Model the fold of this input.
Amino acid sequence: MKKIFFILGVLFVQNLYSQGAQHFSALNPALFLYNEEDEFINSPLKYNNGKQVVVPDPVKYPWEGRLENGMPNVLIDHEKDIVSIYLSSFVGYSPKPPSKVGMLAYYNMSTDINQWHRANPSLYWYNPSGKTGDELISSVYKSGYLSTNIVAVDVESVGIFDDYNAESNPIKLIYLPQRESRNKIISSYEMKREFDNEGILTGFSEMKTDRTSKQKNFTFKFINGDTHMNFLKVKDDYYFVSRLNSKRSSLLSTETLPLKPDNRKRYRRETVTWVGPTLVSKNVDLNIALDMSTELWEPYSMQPFQLPDHENDIWWGLVTMFGSAGFPDTENKQRTELAISNDGMTWRYIKPGVPFLDNGTDPSSDDYGCINIAKPIQHFFWDPYMKNLYFFYASSNQRHVSGRNSGISLAIGKYGKIAGLTASSSEKIFYSQPQHPADGLSEDCLQLFSIADAFYLHSDFYPSLLADVYEDPRGKEMSKLSSYASVSIYSFDKTKDYGLGMFLCGALGSSQRGSTDVSDDYEAVDFLEGALHSTQRSGMLKYLKSYSDSHPDQIVSIKHFPKIPVALMAKLKKATLYEIQFLRQSTSDNFVLDIEKASNYKGGNIWTYDIPQPSLQCHTVDFSDAKPLPNQTLPNMKVKGALAVSVQPQSGNQEQTVLRMYNNDDNYSTIIYDGSSKGFIYKMMKDGKEFSSMSILPPVGDTFEDKLVYLTLEAVPYNDRKMGHYIPEDAAVFTVTCPELGYAASKQQPILWGWKHAKGSITPSDSANARAFAYLQFSSFISRPKKLTIGGKNEQCESPFAGQIFKIQFSDKLPDGVNFFWPSSPMVATKEN
Done:
């Protein structure tokens, strides 16, 4: 049959008008795969070296005398160009609880960043004669009372989310209702985006009278650390972030219950909770989002955000980190790190342990002790070109200790230049797929490219790059450049390394034209890929010709040509790539690049290690070079999950290590076969102390030795757990199964119900805290361990396992049915030593 190849006009002429841009961070794992060493954090520049632009004045404004835990929220009244800051904190401190908590409002309607004023909403007044929190702050005026800038009371750790897509009540507040929470409730209140003459939300007036009746209550089984919350919205569903506190389940030899005092160290954990497409009162469940970034830093709170024109990109998390106890240089300090998420539920740190915004180094600086950061804003009054991001943050000279007082400081960053991929003088190449594409995204979840949209007249079908490049590549060959950043798009070919098929298009980033100064604009410079110009359509025409040749019976119409799967590649040398941009300049509703399916990818979370030779003693897997796929959690990054191991123990040394995941000898988890008791032990260590331990012995008169044994650890919610169904709590469960003996036994991580009061006097608050202390601790709780040694305790194979180990598998949960292992999958993004 005659082959027909149609190009309809080659370029589609339409009525053209700009319809915006689509931006993607280079750190979006749906674009490129990378490890921690490839990441670069571009810290914003502190304004006036971190000096406060809003300074508390307890003499003139006594309700500002103890702004502990201050958390700022920043909004803009775009009609009047007024910036407002809402600081959630104590507003009436009382030595005898409860103190009065609430929110203060400040505003700036000037082109001068320093010109801040206290709002005068006439909602609450200060009573100079008051003694208790409720006496100090009054909702009605009386003679002698002082007018305040307080806009809300009895709400703690308030986060404000502005949902621009909501048709009604787009302003969403999330907070701990101080008087109603009872270790179970977090609440939300919605209001209109309407402002008074000072740029302050008018909805606080209604909230004053109807909060308890109008608020939506999210009820948990238990909560115990909720602070500094906020919403995010992913794929039309609302989520909110909060916090949980954990403490060890194992007692020291000197400790007995109840603990008086409770000297156990507290470990903070960031949580995320799915709410749904609307905010309604309901029962909800928490999920862990982040554990410690390093042994020194715990997540205290997180402010998630997306920049404008990044709706299909990652979410950033500004994570306030708390200096963990026991490390004098950093304990009780607070600073900011970065995290990202594609799906809103799965989060990971960028450059863990490296601050995005660090404390001042001068002991006299306003932010030497604490930084609590707000989501950034852009403001025309201060930056007419809208290239700056303004990060306001609560700052205090003191560390996170009782009595500190916070003001507001400012740091200024560049739009889009938050963090990126970086390379020094040696070239680095980044791909959207592993070298063997079968180990990467499934074929139905690949990035897609629309050739049809690329052929609209004047459409910018090639990417523009936001990058720090120190050379203008115009008129030069790439091989001759000393600094460059390029992005190339190829058709996907599963038979080729990294899936790179035929070249379609691409571009080089650039310094400012004709100079070595970095550009803050999105740049796109043509380069040659063979004989093909990267910013011309010749690559796509060549692909269409090849497609037509391989489909001789098919009429090929560009206008109706379906999206094709693609693979991406970035090359960097002495450069940092922050973002790529695609412009939409046609009446088409689409951009040329579609990464929605890649961003929603849910595979890659089953990690299997089949021991190549069971007789060999030790195998060590190093995760330091891991390059996770979108939403993938490798064994060392799992906030919850399951572990299954098949072994055959033999008699030998007293302590035989089946496996050990570790950073060092103070922080690890391990499974041990005790040659003395003939039982198996699971143990977790934190900061040199036993955090939890579960041991299981064989039946009396029997032994596990020389028999096939399955070991499982499940740190998953009860409804997802396979073993130990008689254990109702959401805590880790260790199980030993020996089919030959017809034996299975499970042990739960201990929950210390009597940590505060003796049996018979345990309160609901005691129980809620006890549950939270032991909630689902898995591998990431160890502080992101780097190595997994199988058959020994370390790479030197100390305390070796005397028997045989056949298989190890990490997964999100164990499979249903009789099997303990999911169908085998290869190791991904790891290396074996």
